[in-house]
Amino acid sequence: MEQTIDENDDFTEKQQDWDESDVGKRIIKRVTINGTYLNELIVQVFCRFCGAEFIGPSREAGGFLGGHECLHSWEIAQEMNREDGLTE
Ligand SMILES: [Zn+2]
């Protein structure tokens, strides 16, 4: 079977506690209750609304961004409802 992963990629076996030095590395294998993740990239992302930051597996970074976006959309909607005077 052909190796599809770049040989220059850095791998880590860390399962938690990722920090800046791990960004860009791949987690060889990560087992969760939802499934087993292989060759997952560690990324650093931040929320453009509140500035919170996250370092971790791509999958969790997506959840972080989606979760923040969802919350902040809700906050904005609440704010707009208050300002348009439609709520009693
Ligand atoms: Zn946020």
Written account of the structure:
- The chain is an alpha+beta fold and 88 residues long.
- The chain has one helix and four strands.
- The protein has one helix at 58-83, and strands at residues 11-12, 26-32, 35-46, 53-57.
- It has a four-stranded mixed sheet with strand order 1-2-3-4.
- A hairpin with a 2-residue loop joins β2 (26-32) and β3.
- The longest helix has 26 residues, at 58-83.
- The relative contact order is 0.13.
Overall number of structural domains: 1
Q: Which whole number gives the mean pLDDT? A: 90
Written as H for each helix and E for each strand, in order along the chain, the element string is EEEEH
Bound molecules: zinc ion
Instruction: Give the CA-based shape.
Output: elongated
Largest sheet: 4 strands, mixed
Distance between the termini: 66 Å
What portion of the residues fall into strands of 2 or more residues? 25-35%
Number of strands: 4
How big is the Rg?
18 Å
Low-confidence stretches: none
Helix content: 25-40%
- Order of strands, main sheet, comes to 1-2-3-4
Look at the helices and sheets and give the structural class: alpha+beta
Helix run count: 1
Task: Supply the key terms.
single chain; 88 residues; alpha+beta; elongated; binds zinc ion
Quick structural summary:
With 88 residues, the protein is of the alpha+beta class. The protein contains 1 helix and 4 strands, in the order ββββα.
